Structure formats: structure tokens, C-alpha cells
């Protein structure tokens, strides 16, 4: 963690220097190694991560395992679930946009987030109609609707009909599978 802050300080110092053109075009925006560049948001080490490319992503399980951190791989590709009240966004209130941690697909805006007290981040609507797909899930003897990323088909969580009156929906999403970019990227936020 200390290394990240040293790198961040170096980037910020370099960004104030007029002769350092790379730092003027790239800014580290959070602890997930996301970077804003002239081409959009990128994640080093993940060649398919993009907040501007909307084409479908189909990789083999071995390819996903190679580019995703273990916790993201478990949630996204094995339909895992993080424990309630442990994810960093379950009670987070920053203003910005939530993206798929596997492929960079734009999923939710913070103004659609609400405090459901279920232990996972909850949203009452997705960013656009293609951002998320829905699938019947009858695992563990329950009848639920699974939510998946519309671009990479990664497991996000589930959707329920007990949300606020704006839509009546509650998208119950795993924090691990979300990347957050604040509206003001120069404000590094954990």
C-alpha cells in the first residue's frame, strides 16, 4: 500500500511539471491501478479493460484466470459471492461511476446507489439497457435473477423487487466486481 502512495505522489509531482508530457496525459485514480488516459480508463495488465469499447468479450477460462486477480476471477467466472458487509463499496457514498472490474463496462452511476443495509452495494437502476443481462438462477434451492456484465458476461450479483420506488429494483452487487471512478478523478478515494 505504501508503494502505491509513493507512486501516486510521484505522478502528482510529475503532473505539475510542464516538461513531463506523460504525466499530463495519465492520472492514477484509485488503488485498483486504474488510469485515466487520453484514450479513456485503462487497467494495466488487463488488455481487454476499456470504458469505451462496447464489443462483447469472450475469453477462455484460462485467459480470464491469467488477467484477473483471484478475488475478481472467483466472483466473475465462478459466480462467487463476497461476505456481506465486507466489500469496500457496500456503504460507500462517493460520487462517480461504477465499472465492471473485469472488462471496464460502465454499470452504474452513484446517484442510483442507495443504502439497503443488505451488506452489498445496492443500486435501483443500471447505467443503460445493455450494461447488464439477466439470467434465471435456481442455485442453493432459491429462485433468483442473476445479473451479469453485458460486455464480458461476468457474474455481478442478483436483482430483487424490493428496491426504492424509483424502479422498485435492488441490484445487489459484489464490491469486488466493481471499479469506482470519482466524478473528480484528482480526488483519490478508498
Kindly summarize this structure in a few lines:
This protein has 190 residues and is α+β, with helices and mostly antiparallel strands. The chain contains four helices and twelve strands, in the order H-H-E-E-E-H-H-E-E-E-E-E-E-E-E-E.
Can you offer a commentary on this structure?
This protein is α+β, with helices and mostly antiparallel strands. The chain has one domain: Beta Complex (Metal Binding Protein, Guanine Nucleotide Exchange Factor, Chain A), CATH 2.170.150. The protein is built from four helices and twelve strands. The strands form three sheets. It has a six-stranded antiparallel sheet.
The tally of helices reads 4
Question: Which runs of at least 5 residues are low in confidence (pLDDT < 50)?
Answer: 1-31
What level of helicity do the residues show?
A: 10-25%
**CATH uppermost class:** Mainly Beta
Structural Rg: 17 Å
Biggest sheet architecture: 6 strands, antiparallel
Order of helices and strands: HHEEEHHEEEEEEEEE
CATH superfamily: Peptide methionine sulfoxide reductase
Structural class: alpha+beta
- The rounded distance between the terminal residues' Cα atoms is 11 Å
Backbone shape? globular
Task: Quote the CATH topology.
Answer: Metal Binding Protein, Guanine Nucleotide Exchange Factor, Chain A
Q: Care to count the β-strands?
A: 12
Task: Note the topology.
Layout (H helix, E strand, L loop, with lengths): L1 H14 L5 H5 L1 E2 L6 E3 L2 E3 L18 H7 L2 H9 L17 E5 L5 E4 L3 E2 L7 E2 L8 E6 L6 E6 L5 E6 L9 E4 L4 E5 L8
Antiparallel strand pairs: 1-2, 2-3, 4-5, 4-12, 6-7, 7-11, 8-9, 9-10, 10-11
